[in-house]
Amino acid sequence: MGVGTEQTRLVVLRGNSASGKSSVAAGVRDRFGRGLALVEQDNLRRIVLRERDRPGAANIGLIDMVARYALDAGYHVIVEGILYADRYGDMLARLRADHRGPTYGYYLDVPFDETLARHATKPIADHVSEADLWEWYRQRDLLPGGAETVIGADSSLPETVERIMRDTGLAGLQPRDF
């Protein structure tokens, strides 16, 4: 069953906590304009469902459903989150396979010490401990089959946004007036 169109872009943006995923996704959306949907794991899992991240959790299907709906409505989509490979990999593989247009995957690879430094600047820093971050951290939790381009911590936010805009072709597309 196909989803989206040959023109819609699907971007999957993964990485550990405080790797910059949300900032990159927001930067791409700001650069592109209307017509690009953000499907954020944290929002759907923690806010909408108020659910813990565990195998088989309801948010996995909700992320899939929201991404498919937005693609079918003609939006380009960024699916963004930690999205552990062992929990979300099958869903992401099906979504990639079903998408009629180009699909791109990126993994933001940030070492743990940099994760701690970045986390300290976030509003939730007082509520999420170093022990929590260590428990969640998975080094290079890549999807199988080379489905992702790895972007290291040495790539600045503007450089990463520009790279994704260029790689995906979003830089050359006109925003839609939704």
Labels describing this entry:
alpha/beta, 5-stranded parallel β-sheet, 43% helix, 178 residues, Rossmann fold, 7 helices
Strand content: 15-25%
Structural class: alpha/beta
In N-to-C order, the SSE pattern is EHEHHEHEHHEH
Please give the CATH class.
Alpha Beta
Strand order of the largest sheet: 2-3-1-4-5
> First CA to last CA: what distance?
25 Å
User: Number of domains in the coordinates?
Assistant: 1
Contiguous helical run count = 7
Q: Which fold name corresponds to the CATH topology?
A: Rossmann fold
Shape: globular
Segments where pLDDT lies below 50 for 5+ residues? Answer: none
Q: What does the radius of gyration come to?
A: 16 Å
> How many beta strands in the DSSP annotation?
5
Summarize the main sheet: 5 strands, parallel
CATH architecture, by name, is 3-Layer(aba) Sandwich
What is the quaternary state of this protein? single chain
Task: Report what the structure shows.
This protein is an alpha/beta fold and 178 residues long. It has a five-stranded parallel β-sheet with strand order 2-3-1-4-5, sandwiched between helices. The chain has a single domain (10-171), classed as P-loop containing nucleotide triphosphate hydrolases (Rossmann fold), CATH 3.40.50. It is built from seven helices and five strands. The model has no long low-confidence stretch (mean pLDDT 92).
Topology:
Blueprint: E1 10-15, H1 21-32, E2 36-40, H2 41-48, H3 58-72, E3 76-81, H4 85-98, E4 103-109, H5 112-119, H6 130-136, E5 149-152, H7 157-168
